[in-house]
Design a protein that fits this description.
This is Patellin-3. Pfam families: CRAL_TRIO, CRAL_TRIO_N, GOLD_PATL1_C. Keywords: Cell cycle, Cell division, Cytoplasm, Lipid-binding, Membrane, Transport. By secondary structure, the protein is of the alpha+beta class. The chain has 16 helices and 15 strands. The strands form four sheets. Strands 3-4-5-6-7 form a five-stranded mixed β-sheet, sandwiched between helices. Strands 8-15-10-13 form a four-stranded antiparallel β-sheet, with no helix packed on it. A hairpin with a 5-residue loop joins strand 3 and strand 4. Helix 3 packs across helix 9 and helix 4 packs antiparallel against helix 7.
């Protein structure tokens, strides 16, 4: 019996060792994974740090990619096809609208899985004890009369507890007489079997129940028809409805470097956020953004046709506007955020999501009179940071270029602090210009007639002689030099023109020279000094004879100047 007990112990110990090994093996990858992840991250950060200056100075390196599927590189085409397949499967399963499963259900499933995994490990332990039970029963019945009564009483007690269904415990003649020690071992073995038999029966019963539950599940699946795919619309475009959906999916792929799973996770997050934020209701909300018309607004397009959005947070220098917008009130902060998102949504609805259309903006951020680095305008800083996070997380790849103008002295230090939070792709869209170079920088991307007058352009509010579609001419005035411009005039017509010099600080004059010999020169505007704060000069002259109008600009400074101008003859007066 001692040998059999050792065999039982040897049979049960391997199961415990196996479970211990799995526990030891699971944490082994954990210390290795940080090392594997840390290595490429540090390498990338070094590369980004080395390229940081180039990205700021060589911002022209970014060029928008094509949204036509046939023009995409093969890896990007495959990523888009895989992404569309994942979206279709999610629509079929209603993953965009179905609520996530409750956490308690997951915990119960894990507990059930743990119990079912442990149950087979206990069954082999009970089987050897149950098999050894008949042997001591047979040996106990070949005893002398004086000791047999004691053993029969013990057997009767055990039989009442065990209640075997068959008469396997019927006494049988034994060939040998057992010793006293063997009788004690027999009684101990019987007691062990009394404890182990019910456990074995319970294990058998538990293993027989799951097949019955599994047999019922196919019946319910066959009776319920599959639901139709759900419809999900984002920015007014139904997903997978037409080629416009491809343009939207490409935005998510590019935002995640064409990593399909990450792009899919971002898409699901954006759809969930839009429902939580109630975007559809937000579009119809009124009385949002009152007094903020000059803080964020759209004005004109750039040279490639992108709508241009201007952000002038220096307008919050107006204390009344600041108090009405923030004023330590969480409700006002919420309204500001809802207004900013509403403005973004309405602007997006005006974009063209066709593959060859314009579906991105140019952002111009005016930092003139903007609050200090950390210590001023706390509520404004918090509001703009929250708005920035919402826009970054839920509006991927909607900015083609981001131009920072009137950059103050402290901003480079601030940019170095936040630089790490931007991807290389995002930083390649940034352009920075100080106060003296703001207008010139804007003219690189936006035509002067499209730039608002307060930023050095020719576009003014109200009724004007010129429309935005009438182009302007740009010229450079060298330091310490004069520049003359001639506008031809037909007989008896009115000539109108407008001109502007960035930063002015030059002398300006205009005169009319007739074409006929012996004619007299007519002074239209006497030469005068034009200050730096003056805007656009708009003038008209009605000629009584053919000739030309000559304007003269005298730049006596040591800096070159940018001159923009345009002219036309008014047809109604000709």
């Amino acid at each position: 019996m001692a040998e059999e007990t050792k065999k039982i112990a040897e049979e049960t110990t391997p199961e415990v060792v196996v479970s211990d090994v799995t526990v030891r093996e699971t944490p082994q990858p954990e210390p290795e994974s940080p090392e594997k992840v840390a290595a490429p991250v540090t390498g990338e950060s070094k590369v980004e740090d080395e390229k940081e200056k180039e990205l700021v100075t060589e911002s022209n390196s970014f060029k928008e990619e094509s949204n036509k599927v046939e023009e995409l590189p093969n890896p990007e085409q495959k990523a888009l096809a895989e992404f569309k397949q994942m979206v279709q499967e999610a629509l079929n399963k209603h993953e965009f609208t179905a609520p996530p499963p409750p956490p308690p259900a997951k915990e119960e499933d894990e507990k059930k899985a743990a119990v079912s995994a442990d149950a087979p490990a206990e069954a082999p332990e009970a089987e050897p004890a149950a098999a050894a039970a008949p042997e001591p029963v047979i040996e106990a019945e070949s005893e002398p009369v004086a000791e047999k009564k004691v053993e029969t009483e013990e057997l009767e007690k055990t039989e009442e507890k065990v209640t075997p269904p068959e008469t396997e415990a019927t006494p049988a003649p034994a060939a040998e007489t057992p010793s006293a020690t063997e009788k004690v071992e027999a009684v101990e073995e019987i007691k062990e079997t009394i404890v182990e038999v019910p456990a074995a029966v319970a294990v058998v019963a538990s293993t027989e129940e799951p097949p019955a539950a599994e047999a019922e599940e196919p019946k319910t699946e066959q009776t319920l028809p599959p639901p139709p795919p759900e419809e999900v619309t984002i920015w007014g475009i139904p997903l997978l409805a037409d080629e416009r959906s491809d343009v939207i999916l490409l935005k998510f792929l590019r935002a995640r470097d064409f990593k399909v799973k990450e792009a899919f996770a971002m898409l699901k997050s954006v759809v969930a956020w839009r429902k939580e934020f109630k975007i559809d209701e937000l579009l119809d909300e009124k009385e949002l953004g009152q007094g903020l018309e000059k803080v964020v607004y759209n004005h004109g397009v750039d040279k490639e046709g992108h709508p241009v959005c201007y952000n002038a947070f220096g307008e919050f220098q107006d204390k009344e506007l600041y108090q009405n917008t923030f004023a330590d009130d969480k409700e006002k902060l919420t309204k500001f955020l809802r207004w900013r998102i509403q403005f973004m949504e309405k602007s997006i609805r005006n974009l063209d999501f066709s593959p060859d259309g314009i579906n991105t903006f140019v952002q111009v951020l005016d930092l003139k009179n903007s609050p200090g680095l950390f210590f001023y305008k706390k509520e404004l800083r918090q509001a703009t940071n929250r708005a920035l996070l919402l826009l970054q997380d839920n509006y991927p790849e909607f900015v083609a270029k981001q131009v920072f103008i009137n950059v103050p002295w402290w901003y480079p230090a601030y940019y170095r602090m936040i630089n790490a939070s931007f991807t290389t792709r995002t930083k390649s869209k940034f352009v920075f210009a100080g106060p003296s170079r703001s207008a010139e920088t804007l003219f690189k991307y936006i035509a002067p007639e499209q730039v608002p007058a307060q930023y050095g352009g020719l576009s003014k509010e109200g009724e004007q002689e010129f429309i935005t579609a009438e182009p302007a001419t740009e010229e450079i005035i060298k330091p310490a030099s004069k520049q003359t411009i001639e506008f031809p005039v037909t007989e008896k017509c009115t000539l109108v023109w407008e001109a502007r010099v960035t930063g002015w600080d030059v002398s300006y004059g205009a005169e009319f020279l007739p074409s006929a010999e012996g004619g007299y020169t007519i002074l239209i505007e006497k030469s005068r000094k034009v200050g730096a704060n003056e805007s656009v000069i708009s003038t008209s002259y009605k000629a009584s004879e053919a000739g030309k109008v000559v304007i003269t600009i005298d730049n006596q400074t040591s800096k070159k100047k940018k001159l923009v101008y345009r002219s036309k003859n008014k047809l109604s007066d000709c």
